[in-house]
Design goal:
The chain is α+β, with helices and mostly antiparallel strands. It is built from three helices and six strands. Strand 2 and strand 3 form a beta hairpin. This is Large ribosomal subunit protein mL49.
């Protein structure tokens, strides 16, 4: 009996596994975000501030959970009244109150569902 050598056998691809993007085809950076349109003094009057990252991007992130079937949007770098920001987000984005929460450990705002673009757009409209 002849066994195929391990060098000639091709690795099997799992049809349920997402295809990985080769490093040379990956997007290395996000598109630039417009600068804040309000002064820090105007933003302080809101009661909360969402600070930019060191690369001058908005701190809005998409996280996949439950094997890639559930999406959570995170808003980090919030200073001030997080509860007020959460209520303004719920009202401004038109999402259910039970789909938004403040993580008690990290103090990040979490939104259940695909609200990434809406959340970034809302923060830009508000001048952050």
């Amino acid at each position: 009996s002849t066994k195929p050598s391990s060098a000639s056998a091709s690795p099997r691809q799992n049809p349920n596994q997402k295809a990985k993007i080769p490093p040379h085809l990956r997007q290395l950076s996000r598109a630039p975000v417009p600068p804040p349109t309000k002064t820090p003094e105007e933003l302080v009057s809101l009661g909360y501030i969402v600070r930019r990252t060191p690369s001058v991007q908005l701190p809005v992130y998409r996280r996949w959970q439950s094997g890639g079937t559930r999406q959570v949007v995170l808003i980090k770098k919030v200073d001030g009244d997080r509860i007020r920001l959460l209520e303004d987000l719920v009202q401004g984005l038109g999402i259910a109150r039970e789909d938004a929460r403040i993580n008690p450990t990290t103090q990040h705002i979490e939104l259940k569902g695909d609200h990434f673009d809406k959340a970034r757009g809302w923060l830009l409209e508000r001048g952050f």
